[in-house]
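The pair is quoted verbatim underneath.

:::
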Amino acid sequence: MTSTTTYTSGVFALETMDVPGGTETILRGGRHLFPLLPQAFAGVGRIGVLGWGPQGRAQARNLRDSLAGTDITVTVGLRPGSASAADAREHGFTEENGTLGDWLAVAADSDLLLLLIADAALAAHHQEIFAVLKPDAVIGLSHGFLLGHLRETGGDFPAGHGVIAVCPKGMGDSVRRLYEQGAEINGAGINSSFAVHADPDGRATDLALGWSVALGAPYTFRTTLESEYRSDIVGERAILLGAVHGIVESLYSHYRLAGDDEVTAYERSCENVTGPIARTISRAGLRAVREDLDPAGREVFDRAYTATYGPARELVAEIYDEVADGTELRSVILAERRLGKREMSRIGGSPMWAAGERVRARRAERELPVEPFTAGVFVATMMAQVDEFAERGHPWSEIVNESVIEAVDSLLPYMHARDVAFMVDNCSRTARLGTRRWGPRFLAAFEQIAYPAAELPADQDLLTAFGTHPAHEALAAASKLRPSVDISVV
């Protein structure tokens, strides 16, 4: 599916990273590269950012701050009457200084136009935007959803325009918070992939790399727009969000049925995933979750892992197929048309979430150990996504970022600070719709298939495959580029 991960730059010094079966070319980021940004953005006098959602809000501010002192202006474009205008003004984007304006006027005046409005809005209004572009303007995306929609509808990007993508592997708040932390610790930020979909004048690669550096990405790797939107949409419906919701709700019920009180069941399910399990993976890798357990704990982990892997892999494959053939994208568009501007119902009212506040209130009393059964279920689901992406031909940087790093270094810390239900109820509508569709599927599969099977002896072949999996090598290589800072969540 993907093109070669080898590329060159006329601006930045690139590195080669060893991955299973070969190497990938990557760019290591850092603020010491900011002086090179005017060269990377050669020919760009104005960057337009359409949208003030989580990504638009973060990226506009990061770009403006990184390009301070240059001749490049970052301007935010919003639709008339946008409720976001007041917040944009509070952060220094104003009509008076020429950095805030009508979305189509900003689109018409930009040399690089970043389309960061909601997926459904972009699907509905992209033709209006395309119609006003400057002749040589470059289109920038942070998500491949629009490519999938264009293919579904027989459309295409306008001829003669560069089309690039820089896709941070984390939510917008993470993009901004870690960028701010990067002022103290050079390189702190969110990893990004980049793609060059159309390059009529040969400047697209350096432009994309400059955009990623300006966002604060510690390392940037190459993919394709098609590969990005497939892995991104599948990931948020699986281990990044949808599966996490199904896992913790099913485990909470599992422990309650075993006799735990509400707080203990919450600690053994949600608190364990977002806390000690996520921290162990982030700092020491996937194998360490199992290796750090005592023999009795490993036996529990092994049974949970091997019972869960099969049902989880089936679901991830089903999600992937529905993303690849357009079914999942159509479901998002249909849901948006049906819902309109109505508020979606919230999931945070189920019984388990009432215990979350009490659990968070007593964190200072003790440090929870890894719960072996929970760990086996979670790691198996994560590995199911890794294996599905590997089988579908994704590059290793994309596999470990979309399946592991984005989860443990961006999303799970936010879930730990609030809870999984809060994250689901406050994420993008595309992610929220997918989570509400697939989370219950994971919950049912685990309750009905995995947990009963966990009473049986562990499958030794599956455990051997886990212990020797090439993903460990790829994750270790990527982790060497991790900044020495955890995201600040307040």
Notes: Residues 295-324 form the longest helix (30 residues). The CA atoms of residues 232 and 318 lie 15 Å apart. Strands lie at 15-19, 22-28, 46-50, 73-78, 100-102, 112-115, 138-141, 163-168, 192-198, 219-222.
